[in-house]
């Protein structure tokens, strides 16, 4: 079986160009398909070069050539334009929440992701979801889980702020599911889409790709070392970063720590991420930075739209328009990040220019200014 | 019954050299035997341990050579006869006490047999032990045949008791592991009663040095008339070949075979230190040419030269030496390196004396040519199929990579020594002597500004042999290192001798087991026992230990595949490779099992381009099942399914 690969590079180059450069996003995409790649506490390493000249590992990595234009066209059936340069292809941008208070209470903000998954599972739209729970061995370490029941989905509710390389279990999950849902960060969605390009049959078994807004993820080991100095980290059950504050939950109690030092533990790779809103997902979900029991929801694909419509009809989900001013704030945040990333990749050239975007998009982003009266 | 134990004196029995040595001790009525195994010496104590049930002497595998020799000295202090045997490396472990007990002296006969390994077939060096005899000023005997080895052991006990000193016997591989006819002698009744009288005091102190010299001169007087030293050949021959050990037999054969019997005499030196100077001068005084054959260092050669230099100064004519230092006697790698062989003796003798070389029958030449044409491939160092060390090295390889700080593995002595090579993924950075690994790691783990993690390994037998001081030191001086004991439940490399962790003694009887985890815990080091076959669990355990950045011990416990195979009663499920699932050369594997993990039981089928299990070699250990990313390697029983939840 020969895979249709276009980059003609393999594990050796993956190690040199990505892993050793600190550019790995820990999406987990390469780890699950290859015994030469391993992950320990979210850090991906190459056991030894496999000896192949080219491989899927290099091809699917979100930090090797990322043809965001081509991928957008293939997934959404139309090219990127001024309407999609900023937030990606979008049918609508709105506020959403699960209509179940129980789910909202357990989940992050409005519980949109958890609610949609529970709904999709109950309607047999999906038969399993790759999610992230917490490790039983290591405090605060996320661990990929294939959730196949409502209870298992609920157990994974809530954001994790370190990398959680959950694509690692994709192949195992595909052995057990025919209608799989995947929930991940922008880089993970990119890797999944790149993988589907190599192996289209995977696309046929993935029923839903749910992207999460992600400004950065933290390095687990650095965070852990930092927290060990401040708190009894073994007792910590989770943490949250509401509006740039850092809150650790210790069973029933909670403790707040200064966020500024923790910000320094973000992954280097996140600084060159162009994809804050998971532009290649069917649906993208994030916070509103405003209303704590609501999410921002971007509906991108037809299949995403269908799921949202059904959930609304069955009253599993509630939506509201996102006020124009909040949309502008979101766009301003994305614009600022995209401008910084383009500068780093194409002007300062401090990082390899993995990103492939049209000259038109580059120009548009570089020349745009945030809307009047909106703070960046 | 073992024919080595036969009581009929006069009977001729074919024996291995090591058995002959054991028989010598039995014929000397030995009371106490204690050793630590090491090739090529191990069969001596093995035979003596078996013999213990027949003859009633004490037999033990001691934790190391030093303890073994000291125990023998203890028996001697009470008036009993005792023998210990070891390989050359073991003598270094003993050397401390050897250089005090020479001063204190002994009482009952004490014999130390050291079996050297010229060429280092199974050793990390090819050290010539004879220099230790000179260093410690102790009598040295060098047998040339298994039978002579037996006779020398008997004599050594008598000599030891006469001069109150331990006696060294230097065997080599070609004595210890060769077989020859041995004439059995009487086995006397043992009736010594151990006792330490008021005056039995054994104090090593320089004040006694003159007494040692007196004793050495007593030995020298004995050796002047020793039957182990002989001259064979024409009186007053111009050419005299001096030789010791098996080299003397090679010389005898070569001289005869080359038709040089009338030209050259052979001076065989069996009782070689202290030098029987008058005997030597007597036979070399008329010689113009002296040719010296011996194994490894020019020990005999140098001693002869010193004796002859003295004689020359006394007016003797100057003989010419053809020897190692002159460059005349050498093997392929040069003089004083590797084993002495009949070929070296033949070729050099012919060259020196201008004789026609070795003649062989045409039939032999034809057969030789044919065999050489086969070009048999060199056998690679490799762990056996099913060996737990492969799993352990795999775990270490994975964990050091995952840790990603370029951690170093410090090796030690045992089967896992092969970890310096491909079979251990070239991981081990050191290979020296027993217990050295934990010592090296103690230093590396305490270097400021050295950020590479340090992992040391040692086997279970090595742990008891010489790792305990290093273990205590690592705790006391807070060396940041992980010490892994590769516990495979036996001294596998030397032939599965029991050790304190096995709960069995040298006679195979149950005894108190000394728990290594309790020792480690008592030292106060956090210790975990893991089965290396549980790959992911073991990798995680090592990762955790490395991340702790403090002294840690891991015990990787899994029985040696050979021991397990012997004990196993029921058949295990066959391992096979699902040829449909096997990826072979493709992306996602590229022969991960046969090329990278590399167990000899799992091979590459060139014709099918798929991996395949070699049913003859495979031990059905099943470890490869967890290696395969496609789950193509399966057991001939129900397939396993587990929850999809990745453990970090």
Description:
Helices cover 35% and strands 19% of the residues of chain A. Chain A contains 14 helices and 15 strands. The longest helix of chain A is centred in the last third of the chain and has 24 residues, at 324-347. Chain B is globular. In chain B, α1 (17-27) packs parallel to α2 (42-55), α3 packs parallel to α4 and α10 (277-284) crosses α11 (299-313). In chain B, α9 (246-257) links the parallel β10 and β11 (264-269). Helix content of chain B is 37%, strand content 16%. Chain B has four domains: 3-223, Thiamin diphosphate (ThDP)-binding fold, Pyr/PP domains (Rossmann fold), CATH 3.40.50; 228-353, Rossmann fold, CATH 3.40.50.920; 388-567, Thiamin diphosphate (ThDP)-binding fold, Pyr/PP domains (Rossmann fold); 575-635, Alpha-Beta Plaits, CATH 3.30.70.20. Chain B has 648 residues and is an alpha/beta fold. Chain A binds chain B through residues 1-3, 33-36, 38-43, 45-48, 50-52, 54-57, 133, 135, 137-138, 141, 143-146, 168-169, 172-173, 176, and chain B through 397-398, 401-404, 540, 543, 586-590, 592, 595-596, 627-629, 643-648.
Structure described in brief:
The complex is a heterodimer of chains A (376) and B (648). Chain A is α/β, with parallel strands linked by helices and 376 residues long. Chain A has helices at residues 11-19, 56-60, 68-76, 101-106, 112-122, 150-155, 170-176, 186-198, 200-205, 220-230, 260-263, 302-313, 324-347, 359-367, and strands at 37-40, 43-46, 66-67, 92-98, 128-134, 142-147, 180-184, 206-212, 238-240, 246-250, 253-257, 283-287, 295-299, 317-321, 355-356.
Global mean pLDDT of chain A: 94
In whole angstroms, how far apart are the ends of chain B?
Answer: 58 Å
Helix content, binned percent of chain A: 25-40%
Separation of the first and last Cα atoms of chain A = 50 Å
Please state roughly what percent of the residues of chain B sit in beta strands, choosing from under 5%, 5-15%, 15-25%, 25-35%, 35-45% or over 45%. 15-25%
Radius of gyration of chain A: 20 Å
Number of strands of chain B: 23
- Taking pLDDT < 50 over at least 5 consecutive residues as the criterion, the unreliable ranges of chain B are none
Which structural class do the helices and strands of chain B define? alpha/beta
Form type of chain A = globular
